[in-house]
Amino acid sequence: MITDIDVREIATVGMVLFAVIDILGSIPIIVDLRTKVGHIQSEKATIVAMIIMILFLFIGEELLNLIGIDVNSFAVAGAFVLFFLALEMILGIRLYKDEDESKTASIVPIAFPLIAGAGTMTTLLSLKSQYHTINIIIAILLNMVLVYFVLKASSKIEEMLGKSGLGIIRKVFGVILLAIAVKLFAANVKGLFA
Predict the structure, then answer these.
(1) 107 vs 154: CA distance, rounded Å
(2) Tell me: the pLDDT tens digits for 118-159?
(3) What angle do CA 112, 117, 121 make, to 5 degrees?
(4) Cα separation of 29 and 19, whole Å?
(5) What was the pLDDT predicted at 151?
(6) Does 82 score more than 90 pLDDT?
(7) What is the CA radius of gyration of the chain?
(8) What is the pTM of this model?
(9) Which of 127, 33, 25 is nearest to 74 (CA)?
(10) pLDDT tens digit sequence for 11-26
(11) d(CA 75, CA 55)
(12) How far is CA 23 from the centre of its chain?
């Protein structure tokens, strides 16, 4: 397992997860939630999101098998989800709307579905079909460290980057995510017909 550690894989998976989680793009939502509910527990939100992601990485495939879906099919579906997430980021539109608002903002909606949402879950299983699990776990941990610091300093980051800076970062990661979605789709469609 230690021999499977690959810095390039960790970097690739880390970038994919960073783009899907889109914690920088979520700063306006986090700031808005902070004004609505007061204090957000950054530690709690980060730990819960990390547990959800790692659990799904390990039992997600078994859940799929239980309902009769193979990983390649799920990865192709995941590529579509990533594609639409990328379009949201690039075009500045909102395809998915969550109308549920909760007073426990640290867990819902920050840990789930903002950080560890449907897009992240789909991405994890899609990545698992192409990368070593240890590299995905390391990439999750690195992303969670970043998520924690962004949650802690969200208002300072928003002040520093401004709306246009956040917009540029979101669009750049949208293009990266779009390219990754196309790659995942191409790799897993071959697996479906092999």
Answers:
(1) 17
(2) 778 888 988 988 999 999 999 999 999 999 999 999 878 878
(3) 130
(4) 16
(5) 92
(6) no
(7) 16
(8) 0.77
(9) 127
(10) 999 999 998 898 887 8
(11) 18
(12) 8
Q: Among candidates 13, 42, 22, 47, which has minimal Cα distance to 119?
A: 22
The pair of structure tokens assigned to 180 is: 């990754």
Distance CA 148, CA 150 (A): 5
CA distances from 54 to 93, 97, 99 (A): 30, 25, 27
Alpha-helix runs per DSSP H in the chain: 7-21, 27-37, 42-66, 71-91, 118-128, 133-152, 154-192
Residue in this structure with the two tokens 């819902």, named with its chain if needed:
108
Distance CA 147, CA 183 (A): 26
* Residue 34 near residue 154 (C-beta atoms within 8 A): yes
- Token pair for 144: 């969670």
23, 181, 96, 53 alpha-carbon torsion, rounded to 10°: -50
Residue 74 in tokens: 């799920």
